[in-house]
Amino acid sequence: MKAEEIWHASGKELASMIEKGLFLNSQRSIRFYTPSFINYKTKYFRASPTFFPSISITGSSCALKCKHCDGRVLNTMFPAPTPKELIELCRKLKEKGAIGCLISGGCLPDGSVPLDEFVDAIAKVKKELGLTIVVHTGVIELSTAKRLKEAGVDAALLDIIGSDQTIREVYRLEISVKDYDRSLKALHKTGIPFVPHLLVGLHYGKLKGELQALKMISKYSPSAIIMIAFMPIHGTPMEKVDPPSPEDIAKVLVTTRLLMPNIPVALGCMRPKGEHRTRTDTLAVKAGVNAIAFPDEEAIRLAESLGLEISFSPLCCSQIFKDLML
Q: pTM value?
């Protein structure tokens, strides 16, 4: 079946195909990730609060204040607004048992994260502490991508948007889809492992540009791809917007698998909770994802019942491409 056919199938038709197990992954295994971003505890696994924390190099500052986030996600991260503070924080985290971290931050008016002044500090952390370092880049220039590669970054993460309208209205950015294409090309050219993120339903909970984004990503052979989903955050301009349905999220997951059959696919940490998550996660297991971050217990039980080999990791799910090599 072709990706375009799946994309235009009704939710009922797609759900039926998924329930029949048509898309189960060929590895017959699934890996569950529980980094320290979220407190996670089930009878299967308990996350450490220190193993893989997230860090913001801009503190709580973000020039964009996107409608879906409004900079509030930054408040959940450790602040390290100077290179010196980043090094000192990573040392303290290492002493407390950290094995890696996500380095992120708010964006500048052009959609980039101000990483250039931090690259030397990141290289120092890699060399002296040996932490697994995952960096969220935002829109990125080739020169910065080369420096991150030289610094030894384990993976570069980049949110990809396939609609100019969404970029303008939700991200409040005066750039275009072409700028995201250029960023993907820069990361691909350097050879740095890169893992694009696609936020399903970013356009006010509706699908708009996701297929275009996937086609764009597929040109550059990413190390893996992570699917996340819009979830209303209290206090943001989009707090009352309904999230995309679990079936819409599953549609994007299956389309991704068909467009990029040899690329690991993960369901990432940002997605609605409660019954919505239960349905999303169980559909994701049947849709053949290689990994899920903070899985619902019902999804774990489903994976076991399907005979999938399950394992847990305290790292970021972006590392699925490495784990599949083990």
A: 0.95
**157 strand-pairing partners:** 136, 195
Number of separate domains in the chain: 1
CATH number assigned to the domain comprising residue 149: 3.20.20.70
Torsional sign, CA 49, 132, 303, 158:
positive
Q: Which residues pair with 101 in a beta bridge?
A: 133
pLDDT band at 78 (very low <50, low <70, confident <90, very high): very high
